[in-house]
Amino acid sequence: MTTIAIFGVGLIGGSLALCFKGKPGLHVIGHSVRASSVEKYVQRGVVDQATTSMAEAAEAADFIFLCVPVGNLEEYVKELSRMNLKPGCIITDVGSTKASVAECGSSLQLNGAVFIGGHPMAGSERSGVEAASSHLFENAFYVLTPDTTTPPESLERLTALLQHTKAHIVSVNAKEHDEIVGAISHLPHIIAVALVNQIRGYHAKNEMYGSLAAGGFRDITRIASSEPVVWRDILLNNKRVLLSLLKDWNEEMSRFIEMLESDQGDHIEEAFRLAGEFRNQLPERRKGMIHSVFECYVDVPDHPGIIGQIATELGKHRVNLSNLQIIESREDVPGILRLSFREQTDLDQAVKLLGALGYPVHF
Ligand SMILES: NC(=O)c1ccc[n+]([C@@H]2O[C@H](COP(=O)([O-])OP(=O)(O)OC[C@H]3O[C@@H](n4cnc5c(N)ncnc54)[C@H](O)[C@@H]3O)[C@@H](O)[C@H]2O)c1
Ligand SMILES: O=C(O)C(=O)C[C@]1(C(=O)O)C=C[C@@H](O)C=C1
User: Fold this and answer.
1) Where is the Prephenate/arogenate dehydrogenase domain (predicted)?
2) Do residues 61 and 85 touch, judged by C-beta distance below 8 A?
């Protein structure tokens, strides 16, 4: 039996637990510092066993996943280095920053255990075990940050276990990871939060701001609802990279100010054209890049029953819809329906079916 201990059974820890639980030969132990959380993990069937004792979980484990906020990772690695771990035990984490925890892992004597940093490039603005899903990592990249001291057989064992997530496992240097992920994940979170707070200020004086906020605002700001403590830790941990990225961001904003002040319409057009070209050639529909699910948009007239009709049509043909959202709907104006699917085949079938019924479908 291979025992997996998960510390911090929240969105990411819970999703990993669900990927492993019930698989032949795997036994999943969840750990929380709170007794009430431990009960919840077992009641929800996310883990096979749960405990508030760190030693009980860690010392039984062949694999240890640290899924707590970035600011707590190093204290966990240090605590583990004082325990009687199984020889060959692999300790990994899921933190959104990698350089500091990787350095901590390689600087400590782990008594026969091996530390390999990790980061699944998939997530959500939601948090807690309630938001966990066994599908979260499917098709996403899952970064591992081995270094020259990592035994190849340990890397192979961890990679083999992570096949249960259905993610694509890639090895990346820890510092390079923090620079790239700072740009494509941490900076966008800062921008989304700053934008929402700017509009929040206007809304405080005039509530029409919130009422009129439509698809564009919602699309760019979903991640502003992310868990504050998790993101406080990520941003502070990646401060050096982010300060440099924010300087570049200020320059991008200054260019827009200049283009507007001097009516440079051709430059504005060029900025949109270049951005569109780059975004459109990104690997679409791969989780963790742009789309977290397989999605399409359907223009629908705003009349009663239309949504039911679409859902029924998909259900009739056994197309598995994972989410449905009305982006905008006003009387006499076509609304936009966002349909989300977990599988490419479901999306393809939905596009075919709705297209045949005469609905304009976009990606
Ligand atoms: N949210 C994402 O999209 C995402 C994606 C990839 C990786 N991550 C990383 O995953 C880790 C967990 O994030 P999450 O989104 O699952 O958050 P979460 O809030 O859903 O889960 C965090 C878990 O850690 C526990 N925890 C919180 N503070 C703690 C403390 N001081 N000591 C011990 N346990 C504590 C919580 O009880 C919870 O079980 C973070 O390191 C984050 O950087 C997050
Ligand atoms: O989809 C989201 O909500 C996410 O924030 C996921 C996201 C990202 O920025 O892409 C966030 C943090 C991670 O560490 C990895 C992925």
Assistant:
1) 2-290
2) yes
Question: Residue 91's beta-bridge partner residues?
Answer: 64, 115
What topology is assigned to 177-250 in CATH? 6-phosphogluconate dehydrogenase C-terminal fold (1.10.3660)
**pLDDT tens, 281-324?**
887 545 544 445 688 888 887 777 888 889 888 999 999 888 88
- Ligand 2 contacts (CB < 6 A) are 96, 121-125, 185, 223, 226, 288, 292
- How far, in Å, from the CA of 117 to the mean position of ligand 2? 17
Q: Is 339 left (phi over 0), alpha (psi -120 to 50) or beta?
A: beta
Which ligand lies nearest the alpha carbon of 223?
2
Domain ranges of the chain: 2-172, 177-250, 294-362
In 3D space, the residue among 164, 161, 171, 115 whose CA is nearest the CA of residue 141 turns out to be: 171
Residue 354: partners with Cβ closer than 8 Å, 6 or more residues away: 298, 310, 313, 361
Counting ligands in written order, the one closest to the CA of 180 is 2
Residue 115 to residues 27, 46, 104, 158, Cα–Cα distance (Å): 20, 25, 9, 11
Max distance between CA atoms of the chain, in angstroms, equals: 69
Ligand 2 atom with least separation from CA of 185: 9
What does the mean pLDDT of the chain come to?
92
The percent of residues in the chain predicted with pLDDT above 70, rounded, is: 95
